Amino acid sequence: MSAKDTLDQAEIAFFSELQKFLRRGKTTLPRRVSRICAVDAAYGGDRVAAVASVFKDGQFLERSCYTGCCTLPYVSGLFFLREGPFVVEAVRRLRVLPQLICFDAHGAAHPRSAGLATVSGVVLGVPSVGMAKSLLVGKVVSGRGDLTRIVYDGKTVGFVTKTGGVTRYWSAGYSVSLGELRSVIRGYAPICLQAMAESDREARRHIRLG
Predict the structure, then answer these.
(1) Class of the CATH-defined domain 3-20+32-128+172-209
(2) 61 alpha carbon, distance to own chain's centre
(3) Is the pLDDT of residue 54 over 70?
(4) The pLDDT of residue 1
């Protein structure tokens, strides 16, 4: 039995793109971000539905969905192997290329400083950030300024926001610096959160509908 008989097509494409990324030039985050995408996935057994939602200047623009069969198990610290292929494929199906992609996952706030948000951003070649629901590494430290920090191994690796009872743990993914992450949160957090809620709701709906 070949890999093509066991892996989902999105998984094959994802791992193939990982082999190519070293040939790409570095992407930069624009000073003003207009097109923001958030992508999330829902599971029903081995079936997974990933939805990418794009907002332009704060207004909903479009969404896309990819539904497939996940063949790889969950392994702590290697979440990108399980969900990465599907969220990446959902983004690829958009008609409009986002300038920033938000993942319901970690970026730099990860034991190896590169979670799903980082790896998926690399594969897509688009600046990315993670905005996870829970803390994976480090501790939350309040200090000067308006943002609570995530500190891991003596370094600030992200920030924490609490909006409307929703806590998110933000960290830089691909081609986004810590300073740029701070600017993204200050300037676009409401849009990122709205887009993520849209993708989460639609992904769950696709799973329920079967």
Answers:
(1) alpha beta
(2) 18
(3) yes
(4) 42
